[in-house]
Amino acid sequence: MITKITEFFRNLPTKQCHECGKEIEEQHECYGNSCNECLNVVDL
Fold this sequence. Notes:
Elements: H1 5-10
Pfam family, one: YhfH
Protein name: Protein YhfH
InterPro entries: YhfH-like
């Protein structure tokens, strides 16, 4: 069965950080695999 591309992306599992295992609050189809805490990103 062929599904719509939007349905495919909507059904992807949540992405988890490669280092600590926390859920990443980013788009599931992005290429990053580490959370902001592990990347030492500071929110301004």
